[in-house]
């Protein structure tokens, strides 16, 4: 395996508080705590966390927009403090909001972004970027005339104008409709297929579940978990088996006390929760439960299962660390 394209070691970020005079320290806030994280080349990495968890601060430090209090960040092998320019030119950052002049054209605003990184003009590259984002026909349009979805694409085009190897997407589909969100997902996948490493923050759990190769969960400034998406769901996910009964129960018999069962309000359903696993036959104990139900004289007329979603797992993780 090649070296990670981003490597973070022992990263702390503390914001010091000051009194009105600016001389007296009246408290501080630690936004990041001992963050260790590696991002692999060519992957889509989703960073999840509640508001105030430290997502934006972490991105700001990696992109060189904020200085770390302690720790080191390497971007494609370059120390992003000591070798700032080399590190920063490898990063494209897509913010949530379009900040350019509304009267500027798509072509001019994307070309201008390239120049900000000291890159010589390259109309062919700008053309490739605009065509890949379905913006070529809009290249002469002023930004104020574009739809919300097209403006989002312009943000990505600006970030790609200087040919970065890494793309940060901060809430890329916030506030857009479902159809446009799926279009944006396709754009991100195509960029990954072209060799761009994608790091995205999102509040949409299904976005991370659908797109990310790996997921990191951050809370209170700490990265509490990093895992491959599918492995995370399999390892931490739980399943629920709902059994519809022929005859309602008033209570769960003592003979079933060893099983993790709950009775519905109507008494017509039993809900069995168990760990999901594909490595061990009947590791769930369902066969044993069904035999126990039969022995207790409880008839089952139907049953169905439900797998924990990534959202369930995320909520549980954050609650544990609260």
From TrEMBL:
It comes from the Bacteria. Coiled coil: none annotated. Residues 6-245 form the ABC transporter domain. This is ABC transporter ATP-binding protein. SMART domains: AAA (SM00382). PROSITE patterns: ABC_TRANSPORTER_1, ABC_TRANSPORTER_2. Pfam families: ABC_tran. Gene3D superfamilies: P-loop containing nucleotide triphosphate hydrolases. InterPro entries: AAA+_ATPase, ABC_transporter-like_ATP-bd, ABC_transporter-like_CS, ABC_transporter_ATP-binding, P-loop_NTPase. It comes from Vreelandella azerica. The keyword Transport applies. Keywords: ATP-binding, Nucleotide-binding, Transport. GO terms for molecular function: ATP binding; ATP hydrolysis activity.
